[in-house]
What we know:
By secondary structure, the chain is an alpha/beta fold. The protein has a single domain (5-262), classed as TIM Barrel (Alpha-Beta Barrel), CATH 3.20.20. Helices cover 42% and strands 13% of the residues. Strands 6-5-4-3-2-1-8-7 form an 8-stranded parallel β-sheet, with helices on one face. Helix 4 (114-119) links the parallel strand 4 and strand 5 (124-128). The longest helix has 18 residues, at 60-77.
Amino acid sequence: MTSYKVMGILNGTPDSFSDGGLFVSPQHALDHTMQMISEGADMIDIGCESSRPGSDRISIQEELDRLLPILEIIRHNTNIPISIDTYKPEVMKAALSFNIDMINDIFALQIPGAVALIKDAAVDVCIMHNLGTPETMHASAPYDDPLQDVCAFLSNRVQYLGEHGIAEERIIIDPGFGFAKTVDDNLALLRGIKQLTQLKLPVLVGLSRKSMFQKLMGGEIPDRLPSCLSATLWCYEQGVQWFRTHDVKATCDALKMSRIIREEQQYHEC
């Protein structure tokens, strides 16, 4: 079976759709990071600007004011690999001084200055499919074929980055579930996710607590977990390697159990 990595989400925002305001203080952010590490997270993804539908864009300085104290305390107290969820080159540059491991950019390094900065940085980058702008990223876009359009966008973007000094070995691709996509678009991507893995690059999926699960199954935010885990296991079985989640323990347990079953591991009493 494909190996997997679980990326724990740390929202340093007051307005995230599921846990806004809980981890704004550096100490609370560190406490939650330590919890996610104990639950099995391989990397922590820190974001300090909400990308939820209807959220307001914030200035570079406001994002830095939120991020840097959190990043400093986590880097000082842990060795966990760190990803920074930002699309602003100025924020990327400030974060790079903390020896981070990845930039997770929902606009695929399309903001001017991002490519030139990352080209010479010692970090990997996750690029996400997103046809919108920071102001329109949740407005549904028309697709001839959601799966083919997403594959083409990411393939073209990888080629562009390679031509500008960012090698494929540094790139992870994300189909962007929930960004400018209808429920049917998201389902088409799930059903065909194996085709995305055939681009021969690691694939990351961010399915955690997405509204499509509420629209399909009903319930509130906590009720989305079983549906999300089902979709997560489907993606894992199709070759996806990276899973970005709020629910680290549940995700790690589900993936581990799937691997135990498929590898026919034997149980040994201690």
